[in-house]
C-alpha cells in the first residue's frame, strides 16, 4: 500500500535552493580574488554579470532538456536521444567530473579549515572526517540530500547578508572608484573565471528523476542561477568596497576576511568569522554530498547490478587519494581549473548539444 | 548497511585513538596582548610579547598573589621575526596565542632599517592574529613602552591603545592603523604615516604625532609633529572636532570646530600635470568667550573667520610642504584621489608619483577654507 | 462510570515503609491493584474476548445441573479464593439460582439490592415459566433484575471473560444458559491535573488509567459521530483494550490505515504502558528522537485530532500516543494557543533556543576553551582562564563530570519521594556545585554552563524529546573535544541528515520545513494570531482543510 503522505517530488523551491546552493558552495570563497586580477577596481561586476548571463543560458538549456524527459535522469535521456553506448560514455564522463569535483573540494575544505580553525591537525585527517560524514550522507535516499538545502540555504543567505550589513561601517565608497576603466579583454578574461564559479546547475540533469511535472523545471533552475548571480554581485561589490581591489587581489579568501572584519555590536563575539565558517562548511557539505550522490547514481546506472553501499566503499578511498595528490595551493588551483573546464564541457556543452538533437529529431523525446 | 556501520565503528575508533592535535586548554595558553619589535645586537631582531597572567588580572579570585604583576614581558632574539616567535614558543611554558594581540609597537630604529612588510609578515599571515591589532612606532626602545604602568588601566597595552582612542584630542592623533590597513598600504606601495608613541615625564606616554613611511621601500623617513599631524588629519578628513587657538587684539580665543568637511577635486592642470583643489568647510563656535560684549563678538565675526582660515591653511600648508619637498612622499593620500578621479592621469604618472620623477612634488595643491561661526558660546554674556 | 474507590499514594507509603503493618497493607493494595488492572483489561466491549481458547478443554457449554455448573466453574477458574457464590431460591417457584462473582471486582451491594432481593422477593411466576427453565430465565432477566444484562449465553468461555472482568453471572438450575449481569466496580484514580504537563493557563484535566474515562473525556470535547474510536485487543495474555481514535474526514485515510496495520501486526504478551506500543510501532527504533508524542492532556489530544492526527489510547495508562510527530511540534505546547500570539511566538522561539543550548552549549564551551579562545572577547577569555587556573582536568573531562553529575541528580530526584526530591535538588545543585568549585575540581563558569543546559533541557515541552537532546549533548561534547568547532559542525550535519531522513508514519520528521509547506509556517516557530490559522496543517494532508472561517 502506498502511503500518500510520503513525498518524493522535488518542489520548485527545492530546485531553486539546490541550484543556488550548488553554485555558491565553493565559488563564493575565491570569487572576488579571481576577478580583480584582470579588471580595474570595481569593474569586475560586469564579469560577474556576464558569467551569470552565460550560466543562465545554459541553465535554461539544461532545464529544457530535463523538461523533455520528466522523471528521468541523464543516462536514460541520452539512451533515448542517442543510444546506450553513448549514454554509458557520457554518464561516465559526468560521474568522473563530479568525483573529481568532490575530491578537489574535500581537499579544499581541509586546507581552508586548517588555515582558519587549526594549527597542527593534519589536513588528511580533517578531510577524512569530512569524507566519513559524506559517506553517511550518501548512504541514505537522495531526496533527503536535496531537502538538506531547504534547511541550510536560507541560513547561508542570512549569514552572508549579516556579513554585508555588519560591514557597512567599514565601507569606503572610494574603493569602488574609478568606474568603467578596464579594457574589454580584461573583463572577458575575468568572465572566463566567473563562469567557472557558476558550475553546479548540471546537478539538475540527474535530480530530474524527482521532477515529474512537465514544463515546470526550467523557471526554478534559472531562478536559482539568478539568486546566486545577485549574491555574487553583492558580495563582490562589498568586498571591493571594504578592501579595495589591490588587497582583494592578494587575499586568498576575501569573503572569509570580510567575515573577520566584522565587529559584532556589544562585543559578544570577538570574531564573527566562526559563524561564517560554520555555515560555509555546511553549505559545502551540501554541494559535495549532492555531487557525490549524483556520481553514485551515475555509476549505478552504468552498472545496474552494483549495490549502493559497495559503490560508496569503492569510491570513497579513491576520491580521498585523488584529493591528496595536488601538493600545495598552486597545484590545487590548477587542478580546480582543469576540473572546471572539463565540467563546462561535459555538463554544459554536451547537454546543450543533446537538446539540439532532441529539437532536430522532433517529437521523439516524448515517446 | 552492516558494512557501513562497521566502517563507521572503525572510524570512531580511529577518532578516539588519534590525538587532538590542536587541543590546548585555555589556561595553558599564553595570551599575547601586545608585542614590541626592537633592534638587537648584530642586526638581530628582538621580539617582545606582553603576556597576561589571568589570575592576577581578575579581582577576587582565591589564588591571587597580592601585588603581583598582571603581565609579563618576554623577549626573544633572532635573525627574523618568524624565528623569534618560534624561539619564544620553545622558551615559554605556555604557547603564545596571538588572537587577542591589541598593539604592535615597532621601534624607530628598526623601522628605519627594515622593510615593514618583512617585520610584520608573521602578524599578517598568522590566521590567529587579528586584523584589528594596532601598529605604532615608538621613539626609543619599543619594549620599554610595554613596561609603562599607568595606574588606571591594568595593562600597559590597554593604556596605550586607549590613549590613542581618546576622542578629545582627535585632531593631533594619527588615527589607529591596524594590520589590515597596513596590509592594504603595503600592497599598494603608497606612502603612509603610522601613529607614534613616545614617553613623556617618566610614566606617561603620548600618542600624538606620526611616523612617516615611504612607499618605495617601506622604511621610516621621518616624523610629523603635533601641528603637522593635525594638518594631515585635516587633509585626510579624519578630523571630527578640533579646537584652534586664535589671537585677536591681545585676547586669546578658542575656536571649537564642531563640523569639519573636506573635499578634494582633481583636475588636469598646466603641463598636463594633475592639480588638486582642497576645499575645507568648517563650522564652529567660540568656546571660551573672553569677550565681554556680544556686540563686540559680532564685530569680530569677520575677523574670527579670517583667523580660523589662516590657522587651518597654516596647518595644511606646512604638512603639504613637508610632504612635497622635504620627504617627497605622498603620505597624504593625494595619489589615491588621482586614481579614483582621473584614472588616465594615474595611468600616466602612477609609476613616477612619489618616486622616479616625483610628479607629486610638482603638482599644484590649492587650499580653500570656508568658515562659519554658528553660535557664540552658550551664554550671551559671561558676567 | 466508577471513579474513586481508593487512591494510593505510592511514594509516601514506600517512604514510611519502616512501619511493618503499613507495608503489609501497602503490598496488599498493590497486589490487588495489579490483579485488578490485569483482569479489568479484559475487554470491556464484551464481544472481543471470544478468542480466549486455552481455558476450556472438555467443557464447552453449560449443563442443566446447577451444582455441576458451579463445580465446573470452580475448576475452570482453578479454585480462586475471591470467587463468591450465592445460591438463592427464586421467589414464587421452586427454582434455585446462583449468583457468581469475583469479590472486589463486582459491586456486592449493588448485586444484593438489584439482583438478589428482587429475585427472592418475587411472588408469582407464569405457568409457562414454572415448567420451562429457559422461559424462567427470560422472566428473571426481564422482570426481576434491574441491572443491565449485556449477554446471555451457554458458552463457558464467554462466561469466564465476563466473570474475570468483574461482572456477575446468574446460573439457573435447569437452564443451560446463564445471564451476565453488569456489576463492575473497578477502583480507579480520580481525574487530576497531569503531573508532567502542568500549564499556567488551560484545563486542569488529565487522563486516568481507565480507558472508559479517557474516551469519555474525548467525547466531551468532540461531540460528533465522526469521532472514530476503533477498539483493538492487545496482548496475548493480558487482553488489554487499545483504541485508535481519529476524526473521520479529517485524518488522512492512508495514515489511519498505516496505524491500523501496525497495531494489528503487534503480537506480544502484555503492554504495560503505551510506551511499549510506541516502541513497537515507531518507524525507526535506532533513532534517538521520539517519533510518537505522548501526552496526558485531553485538550492536547483533542487539538491534535482536529489537526488530522491519530491518537492511540491504551487501557491502564494515562499516557495517550499522538502521531505523526514532527520536529517542530516538539516546541509546541497547548499554552501557546491559549496565550496571546506574541507571547506564544516568543516562547516558542525561546524553546528553539533551548533546544540548541541543550545540544551545543557544553560542546561550544569545550570547543572555545580548548581550541578557539579567539572567538570570545579578551576580557571574558581572561576571566575564564583565571577561573580555570588550578583545575586539574581538561575542559572535556570537567564538562563530562558535571553533566553526568547533573543527570545523576535528575535521576535521583525522580526516584525519591517528593518531599525529599526537592531537598536533594537543593543539596545537589547548591552544595555539590559550590563544593566542586571550592575544591578546584571544576570552574565556576562550568557550573553556569551546566545549569543553563539543565534549565534549557527542561524548557522543552516534551519530556521524552528533552531526553533525546540531553543524550545527544554528550556526543556533541565528545566530538567537540576532538575537533573543536569543526567536530561540532560535522556532528550537526549528521544530526540534520538523520532528521531529514526520519519519517513518522510516512510524514517527514522535519515536515513543514523540509519538505517545505509554506502554509504551515504560520504555526511553526512562530504562532501567528489565531484568526489567521484558518487551515489545518497541510503536511498531514487532512481530508477537510479548513478549520475556521476567515473573519
From TrEMBL, chain A:
Membrane disposition: Multi-pass membrane protein
Gene Ontology, cellular component aspect: membrane
UniProt xrefs under Pfam families: Spore_permease
Tagged with keyword Cell division: no
Keywords carried by this UniProt record: Germination, Membrane, Transmembrane, Transmembrane helix, Transport
InterPro entries: Spore_GerAB
Main subcellular location: membrane
GO biological process: spore germination
Keyword ATP-binding in annotation: no
Family of this protein: Belongs to the amino acid-polyamine-organocation (APC) superfamily. Spore germination protein (SGP) (TC 2.A.3.9) family.
Protein name (Swiss-Prot/TrEMBL): Germination protein GerLB
Species of provenance: Paenibacillus montaniterrae
From TrEMBL, chain B:
The keyword Membrane is annotated on this UniProt entry: yes
Gene Ontology biological process: spore germination
Chief location of this protein within or outside the cell: membrane
Keyword line: Germination, Lipoprotein, Membrane, Palmitate, Signal
Keyword Membrane recorded: yes
Signal peptide annotation: 1-22
Residue span, Spore germination protein N-terminal domain: 22-198
Membrane topology: Lipid-anchor
Subcellular locations according to the entry: Membrane
Pfam families, alphabetized: Spore_GerAC, Spore_GerAC_N
Domain Spore germination GerAC-like C-terminal: 208-377
Gene3D superfamilies reported for this sequence: Nutrient germinant receptor protein C, domain 1, Nutrient germinant receptor protein C, domain 3
GO CC term, one of those recorded: membrane
UniProt similarity note: Belongs to the GerABKC lipoprotein family.
Name of the protein in its database record: Germination protein GerLC
Organism: Paenibacillus montaniterrae
Amino acid at each position: 500500500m502506498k502511503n500518500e503522505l510520503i513525498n518524493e517530488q522535488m518542489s520548485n523551491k527545492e530546485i531553486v535552493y539546490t541550484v543556488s546552493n550548488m553554485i555558491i558552495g565553493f565559488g563564493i570563497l575565491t570569487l572576488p580574488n579571481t576577478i580583480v586580477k584582470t579588471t580595474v577596481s570595481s569593474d569586475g561586476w560586469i564579469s560577474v554579470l556576464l558569467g551569470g548571463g552565460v550560466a543562465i543560458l545554459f541553465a535554461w538549456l539544461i532545464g529544457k532538456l530535463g523538461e523533455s524527459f520528466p522523471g528521468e535522469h541523464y543516462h536514460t535521456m541520452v539512451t533515448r536521444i542517442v543510444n546506450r553506448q553513448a549514454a554509458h560514455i557520457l554518464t561516465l564522463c559526468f560521474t568522473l567530473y563530479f568525483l573529481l569535483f568532490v575530491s578537489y573540494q574535500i581537499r579544499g575544505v581541509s586546507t581552508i579549515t586548517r588555515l582558519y580553525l587549526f594549527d597542527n591537525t593534519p589536513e588528511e585527517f580533517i578531510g577524512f572526517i569530512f569524507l566519513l560524514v559524506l559517506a553517511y550522507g550518501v548512504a541514505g535516499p537522495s531526496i533527503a540530500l536535496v531537502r538538506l538545502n531547504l534547511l541550510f540555504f536560507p541560513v547561508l543567505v542570512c549569514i552572508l547578508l549579516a556579513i554585508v550589513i555588519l560591514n557597512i561601517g567599514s565601507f569606503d565608497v572610494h574603493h569602488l572608484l574609478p568606474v568603467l576603466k578596464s579594457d574589454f579583454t580584461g573583463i572577458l578574461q575575468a568572465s572566463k573565471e566567473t563562469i567557472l564559479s557558476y558550475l553546479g546547475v548540471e546537478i539538475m540533469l540527474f535530480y530530474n528523476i524527482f521532477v515529474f511535472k512537465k514544463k515546470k523545471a526550467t523557471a526554478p533552475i534559472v531562478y536559482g542561477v539568478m539568486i546566486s548571480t545577485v549574491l555574487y554581485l553583492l558580495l563582490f561589490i562589498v568586498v571591493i568596497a571594504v578592501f579595495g581591489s589591490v588587497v582583494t587581489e592578494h587575499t586568498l579568501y576575501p569573503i572569509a576576511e570580510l567575515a573577520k572584519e566584522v565587529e559584532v555590536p556589544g562585543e559578544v563575539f570577538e570574531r564573527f568569522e566562526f559563524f561564517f565558517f560554520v555555515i560555509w562548511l555546511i553549505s559545502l557539505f551540501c554541494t559535495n554530498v549532492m555531487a557525490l550522490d549524483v556520481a553514485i547514481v551515475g555509476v549505478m546506472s552504468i552498472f545496474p547490478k552494483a549495490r549502493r553501499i559497495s559503490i560508496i566503499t569503492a569510491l570513497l578511498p579513491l576520491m580521498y587519494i585523488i584529493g591528496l595528490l595536488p601538493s600545495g595551493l598552486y597545484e590545487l588551483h590548477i587542478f580546480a581549473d582543469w576540473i572546471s573546464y572539463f565540467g563546462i564541457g561535459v555538463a554544459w556543452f554536451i547537454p546543450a548539444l543533446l537538446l539540439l538533437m532532441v529539437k532536430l529529431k522532433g517529437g521523439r523525446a516524448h515517446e | 548497511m552492516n558494512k557501513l556501520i562497521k566502517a563507521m565503528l572503525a572510524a570512531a575508533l580511529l577518532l578516539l585513538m588519534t590525538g587532538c592535535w590542536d587541543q590546548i586548554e585555555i589556561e595553558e595558553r599564553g595570551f599575547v596582548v601586545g608585542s614590541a619589535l626592537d633592534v638587537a645586537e648584530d642586526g638581530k631582531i628582538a621580539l617582545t610579547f606582553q603576556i597576561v597572567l589571568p589570575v592576577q588580572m581578575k579581582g577576587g579570585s582565591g589564588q591571587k598573589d597580592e601585588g603581583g604583576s598582571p603581565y609579563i614581558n618576554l623577549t626573544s632574539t633572532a635573525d627574523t621575526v618568524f624565528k623569534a616567535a618560534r624561539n619564544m614558543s620553545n622558551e615559554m611554558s605556555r604557547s603564545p596565542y596571538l588572537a587577542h594581540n591589541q598593539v604592535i609597537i615597532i621601534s624607530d630604529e628598526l623601522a628605519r632599517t627594515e622593510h615593514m612588510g618583512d617585520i610584520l609578515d608573521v602578524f599578517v599571515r598568522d590566521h590567529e592574529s587579528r586584523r584589528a591589532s594596532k601598529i605604532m612606532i615608538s621613539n626609543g626602545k619599543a619594549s620599554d613602552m610595554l613596561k609603562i604602568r599607568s595606574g588606571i588601566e591594568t595593562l600597559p597595552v590597554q593604556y596605550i591603545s586607549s590613549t590613542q582612542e581618546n576622542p578629545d584630542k582627535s585632531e593631533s592623533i594619527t588615527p589607529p592603523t591596524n594590520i589590515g590597513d597596513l596590509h592594504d598600504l603595503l600592497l599598494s606601495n603608497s606612502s603612509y604615516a603610522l601613529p607614534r608613541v613616545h614617553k613623556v615625564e617618566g610614566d606617561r606616554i603620548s600618542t600624538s604625532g606620526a611616523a612617516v613611511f615611504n612607499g618605495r621601500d617601506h622604511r621610516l623617513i621621518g616624523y610629523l609633529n603635533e601641528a603637522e599631524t593635525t594638518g594631515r588629519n585635516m587633509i585626510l578628513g579624519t578630523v571630527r572636532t578640533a579646537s584652534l587657538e586664535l589671537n585677536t587684539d591681545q585676547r586669546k580665543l578658542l575656536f571649537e570646530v564642531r563640523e569639519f568637511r573636506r573635499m578634494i577635486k582633481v583636475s588636469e592642470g598646466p603641463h598636463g600635470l594633475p592639480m588638486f583643489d582642497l576645499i575645507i568647510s568648517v563650522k564652529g563656535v567660540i568656546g571660551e568667550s573672553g569677550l565681554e560684549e556680544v556686540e563686540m563678538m559680532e564685530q569680530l565675526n569677520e575677523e574670527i573667520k579670517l583667523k580660523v582660515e589662516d590657522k587651518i591653511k597654516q596647518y595644511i600648508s606646512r604638512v603639504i610642504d613637508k610632504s612635497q619637498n622635504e620627504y617627497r612622499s605622498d603620505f597624504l593620500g593625494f595619489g589615491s584621489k588621482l586614481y579614483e578621479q582621473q584614472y588616465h592621469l594615474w595611468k600616466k604618472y602612477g609609476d613616477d608619483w612619489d618616486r622616479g620623477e616625483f610628479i607629486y612634488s610638482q603638482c599644484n595643491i590649492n587650499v580653500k577654507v570656508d568658515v562659519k561661526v554658528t553660535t557664540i558660546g552658550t551664554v550671551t554674556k559671561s558676567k | 462510570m466508577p471513579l474513586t474507590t481508593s487512591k494510593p499514594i505510592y511514594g509516601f507509603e514506600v517512604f514510611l515503609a519502616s512501619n511493618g503493618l503499613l507495608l503489609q497493607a501497602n503490598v496488599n493494595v498493590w497486589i490487588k491493584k495489579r490483579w485488578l488492572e490485569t483482569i479489568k483489561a479484559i475487554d470491556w466491549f464484551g464481544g472481543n474476548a471470544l478468542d480466549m481458547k486455552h481455558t476450556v478443554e472438555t467443557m464447552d457449554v453449560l449443563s442443566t445441573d446447577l451444582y455441576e455448573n458451579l463445580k465446573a466453574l470452580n475448576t475452570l477458574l482453578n479454585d480462586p479464593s475471591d470467587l463468591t457464590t450465592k445460591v438463592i431460591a427464586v421467589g414464587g417457584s421452586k427454582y434455585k439460582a446462583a449468583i457468581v462473582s469475583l469479590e472486589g471486582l463486582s459491586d456486592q451491594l449493588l448485586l444484593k439490592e438489584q439482583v438478589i432481593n428482587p429475585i427472592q422477593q418475587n411472588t408469582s411466576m407464569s405457568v409457562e415459566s414454572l415448567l420451562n427453565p429457559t422461559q424462567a430465565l427470560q422472566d428473571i432477566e426481564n422482570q426481576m433484575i434491574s441491572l443491565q444484562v449485556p449477554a446471555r449465553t451457554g458458552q463457558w468461555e464467554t462466561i469466564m471473560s465476563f466473570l474475570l472482568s468483574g461482572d456477575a453471572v446468574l446460573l439457573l438450575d435447569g437452564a443451560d444458559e446463564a445471564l451476565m449481569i453488569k456489576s463492575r466496580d473497578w477502583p480507579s484514580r480520580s481525574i487530576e491535573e497531569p503531573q508532567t504537563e502542568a500549564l499556567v493557563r488551560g484545563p486542569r484535566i488529565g487522563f486516568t488509567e481507565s480507558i472508559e474515562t479517557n474516551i469519555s473525556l474525548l467525547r466531551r470535547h468532540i461531540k460528533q459521530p465522526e469521532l472514530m474510536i476503533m477498539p483493538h485487543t492487545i496482548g496475548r495474555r493480558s487482553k488489554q483494550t487499545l483504541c485508535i481514535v481519529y476524526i473521520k474526514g479529517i485524518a488522512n485515510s492512508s495514515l489511519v490505515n498505516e496505524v491500523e496495520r501496525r497495531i494489528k501486526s503487534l503480537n506480544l504478551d502484555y503492554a504495560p504502558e503505551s510506551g511499549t506500543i510506541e516502541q513497537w510501532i515507531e518507524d525507526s527504533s535506532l533513532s534517538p528522537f521520539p517519533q510518537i508524542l505522548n501526552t496526558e492532556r485531553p485538550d492536547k489530544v483533542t487539538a491534535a485530532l482536529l489537526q488530522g492526527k491519530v491518537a492511540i489510547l491504551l487501557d491502564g495508562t494515562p499516557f495517550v500516543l499522538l502521531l505523526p510527530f514532527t520536529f517542530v511540534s516538539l516546541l509546541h505546547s497547548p499554552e501557546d494557543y491559549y496565550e496571546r500570539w506574541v507571547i506564544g511566538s516568543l516562547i516558542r522561539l525561546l524553546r528553539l533556543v533551548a533546544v540548541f543550548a541543550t545540544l551545543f552549549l557544553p560542546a561550544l564551551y569545550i570547543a572555545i576553551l580548548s581550541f578557539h579562545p579567539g572567538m570570545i572577547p579578551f576580557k571574558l577569555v581572561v576571566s575564564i582562564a583565571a577561573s580555570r587556573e588550578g583545575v586539574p582536568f581538561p575542559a572535556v573531562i570537567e564538562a563530562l563530570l558535571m553533566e553526568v553529575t547533573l543527570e545523576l541528580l535528575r535521576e535521583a530526584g525522580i526516584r525519591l519521594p517528593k518531599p525529599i526530591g526537592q531537598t536533594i535538588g537543593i543539596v545537589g545543585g547548591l552544595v555539590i556545585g559550590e563544593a566542586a568549585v571550592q575544591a578546584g575540581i571544576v570552574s565556576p563558569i562550568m557550573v553556569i554552563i551546566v545549569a543553563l543546559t539543565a534549565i534549557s533541557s527542561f524548557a522543552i515541552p516534551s519530556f521524552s524529546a528533552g531526553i533525546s537532546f540531553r543524550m545527544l549533548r554528550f556526543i556533541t561534547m565528545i566530538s567537540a573535544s576532538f575537533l573543536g568547532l569543526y567536530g561540532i559542525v560535522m556532528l550537526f550535519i549528521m544530526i540534520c541528515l538523520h532528521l531529514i531522513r526520519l519519517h513518522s508514519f510516512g510524514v517527514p520528521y522535519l515536515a513543514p520545513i523540509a519538505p517545505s509547506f509554506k502554509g504551515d509556517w504560520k504555526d511553526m516557530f512562530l504562532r501567528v494570531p489565531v484568526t489567521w490559522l484558518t487551515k489545518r496543517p497541510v503536511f498531514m494532508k487532512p481530508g477537510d482543510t479548513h478549520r475556521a472561517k476567515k473573519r
